[in-house]
Automatic annotation (TrEMBL):
Transmembrane segments: none annotated. Residues 1-24, 198-229 are annotated as: Disordered. Pfam families: Utp11 (PF03998). Keywords: Nucleus, rRNA processing. It comes from Hibiscus trionum. Involved in nucleolar processing of pre-18S ribosomal RNA. This is U3 small nucleolar RNA-associated protein 11. Component of the ribosomal small subunit (SSU) processome. It is found in: Nucleus, Nucleolus.
Length: 229
């Protein structure tokens, strides 16, 4: 019976609009608008109830160190500056882990670029079946040359399907994108390695432009030699 009841078309009862005499009050709220407003109201009401419950059961003797490490600015808790949160050894360890991850990604990109380059190189270069023949004299050489020209058959590379051309173009775009990503990763790896070396102990100074044998826009540092015991 339920299937028959659902098969019969029913009239869609529409909600009335705002009467013309009440146009000044704006649009008339529909049921779906009331549902959204009621959910938002009850959500705020539940949040206030939980906060009141926490305030009622609060322990006046409660203390933890975060209370003295933060301050309130315009009603918002602001933590203290945590610039020196980690020691020098911990910072060096994190730098090493970051550099290792960047190096792993760089090597992966290089391998993918080499693989794509090899595939596209084999597609672009037409196979050349060359055989070297050795002749005793010029007459035999001319005879071998004529035989080779007669047996040579050029493969029809001009008639390439469109989907093959599209795939080749997409592969070239991917190759260029991977090369660009590899260059960016290599630049980032060099910068992070330099920062890690600068954090190590030892006296060092930045070389001036007139001291550089190969002028470059990047900073070059020189460490003072130390005697190792």
């Amino acid at each position: 019976m339920s299937s028959l009841r659902n098969a019969i078309s029913r009239r869609a009862h529409k909600e009335r609009a705002q009467p013309s005499s009440r146009k000044k009050f704006g649009l008339l709220e529909k049921h779906k608008d009331y549902v959204v407003r009621a959910k938002a109201f009850h959500k705020k009401e539940e949040t206030l109830r939980k906060l009141k419950e926490k305030a009622a059961f609060r322990n006046p003797d409660e203390f933890y160190f975060q209370m003295i490490k933060t301050r309130t600015v315009d009603g918002v808790h602001k933590p203290e500056n945590q610039a020196n949160k980690y020691t020098q050894e911990e910072l060096m360890l994190m730098k090493t882990q970051d550099i290792g991850y960047i190096l792993q990604k760089l090597q992966s990109e290089r391998k993918k670029v080499e693989k794509l380059t090899a595939v596209l190189h084999s597609v672009d270069n037409h196979p050349s079946n060359r055989h070297i023949y050795y002749a005793e004299d010029r007459e035999e050489a001319r005879e071998l040359q004529s035989q080779a020209s007669e047996s040579r058959v050029t493969p029809p590379f001009g008639d390439i399907p469109d989907h093959i051309k599209r795939k080749t173009a997409a592969s070239y775009r991917e190759l260029e994108a991977r090369k660009s990503r590899g260059n960016q990763l290599e630049k980032l790896y060099m910068e992070m390695s330099l920062k890690k070396e600068l954090q190590k102990n030892g006296r060092k100074r930045k070389l001036r432009e007139d001291e550089l044998t190969c002028p470059t826009s990047k900073p070059v540092y020189k460490w003072r030699p130390e005697r190792k015991r």
